[in-house]
């Protein structure tokens, strides 16, 4: 059944209320949108989108559909979360089908589940469309596998932005996991992340990378070690959104890089 069919059937069953699709837009490249995400965008009466939804994806919004930017840059919370939740409830009660579009995956540091709890409390039906999360999208585009036999037995996603502003993490556990560590929202706390991991026993030569604007034409990636990351970030003036990847898998980045080849093929197509 297409998203359109689900949407129409479900809204009829619920006194003509609209439903909310919590949709992941992936890390930026529009070709990483799922077919289901694209259908949810095309079938919505109203699109509410975050800062991390790339310009190329915004360009896919149907011109006749109302789309509202609801912010979420650190210093730019356009609409406070509580108000946004109530706005969605209100619009769904009016019968609008809403596409709540978020960068990456709505359930990975995306507040999708928080919004869903509020919507369900108001008896609004939801569907969830997963997206490619930054950890897998950005690393893949930088030639870094999240796991690799013999180098990493797992992968841990960590937020570098905590509610009270404190990075109160279990550092000794993180330093000894022998996993790939992926920090989201960590750029502002990079010096602390590096220092804490080192002081809790992570080898200072552990390979590490910073990936800015992953999967977009503006992607930049820098490879160093857990000890050199803070200097790299300053030297190259990294900006948000940036992802921090720490672990032996980063040592494969040079061998596995593929984007230059893709770009060369595209250029060749253009000049043919
Ligand atoms: N729900 C999103 C994450 C939201 S938290 C997801 O699943 O990807 C926002 C953080 O994600 C950013 O601060 C950054 O650390 C990371 N991020 C998202 N998109 C990114 C991109 N294109 N390049 C680098 N980092 C990205």
From TrEMBL:
Q: Which NCBIfam families match?
A: cobA_cysG_Cterm, PRK06136.1
E.C. no:
2.1.1.107
Q: Which family does it belong to?
A: Belongs to the precorrin methyltransferase family.
Keyword set includes Lyase: yes
List the source organism.
Answer: Moritella marina ATCC 15381
Keyword presence, Acyltransferase? no
* Keyword tags: Cobalamin biosynthesis, Lyase, Methyltransferase, Multifunctional enzyme, Oxidoreductase, Porphyrin biosynthesis, S-adenosyl-L-methionine, Transferase
Q: In which pathway does it act?
A: Porphyrin-containing compound metabolism; siroheme biosynthesis; precorrin-2 from uroporphyrinogen III: step 1/1; Cofactor biosynthesis; adenosylcobalamin biosynthesis; precorrin-2 from uroporphyrinogen III: step 1/1
Instruction: Give, as one word, the top-level EC class.
Output: transferase
Record-level Gene Ontology MF annotations? lyase activity; oxidoreductase activity; uroporphyrin-III C-methyltransferase activity
Tell me the ranges covered by the Tetrapyrrole methylase domain, including all copies. 20-229
Question: One biological process GO term for this chain?
Answer: cobalamin biosynthetic process
InterPro entries recorded: 4pyrrol_Mease, 4pyrrol_Methylase_sf, 4pyrrole_Mease_sub1, 4pyrrole_Mease_sub2, CobA/CysG_C, Siro_Cobalamin_biosynth, Uropor_MeTrfase_CS
Q: What is this protein called?
A: uroporphyrinogen-III C-methyltransferase
What gene is this protein a product of? cobA
């Amino acid at each position: 059944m297409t998203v359109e069919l689900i949407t129409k059937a479900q809204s009829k069953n619920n006194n003509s209320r609209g439903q909310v699709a919590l949709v992941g837009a992936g890390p930026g490249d529009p070709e990483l949108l799922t077919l289901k995400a694209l259908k949810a965008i095309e079938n919505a009466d109203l699109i509410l989108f975050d800062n991390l939804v790339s310009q190329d994806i915004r360009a896919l919004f149907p011109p006749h559909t109302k789309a509202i930017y609801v912010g979420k840059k650190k210093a730019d919370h356009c609409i406070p979360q509580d108000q946004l939740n109530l706005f969605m409830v209100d619009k769904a009660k009016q019968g609008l089908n809403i596409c709540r579009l978020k960068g990456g995956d709505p359930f990975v540091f995306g507040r999708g589940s928080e919004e869903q709890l509020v919507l369900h409390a108001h008896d609004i039906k939801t569907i969830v469309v997963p997206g490619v999360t930054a950890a897998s999208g950005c690393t893949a585009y930088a030639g870094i596998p999240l796991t690799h036999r013999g180098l990493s037995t797992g992968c841990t996603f960590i937020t570098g932005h905590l509610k009270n502003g404190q990075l109160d993490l279990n550092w000794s556990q993180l330093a000894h996991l022998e996993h790939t560590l992926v920090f989201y929202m960590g750029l502002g706390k990079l010096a602390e992340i590096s220092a804490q991991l080192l002081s809790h026993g992570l080898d200072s030569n552990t390979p590490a990378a910073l990936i800015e604007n992953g999967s977009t034409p503006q992607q930049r990636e820098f490879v160093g070690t857990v000890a050199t990351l803070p200097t790299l970030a300053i030297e190259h003036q990294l900006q948000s959104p940036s992802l921090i990847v720490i672990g032996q898998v980063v040592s494969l980045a040079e061998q596995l890089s593929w984007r230059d080849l893709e770009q060369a093929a595209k250029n060749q197509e253009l000049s043919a």
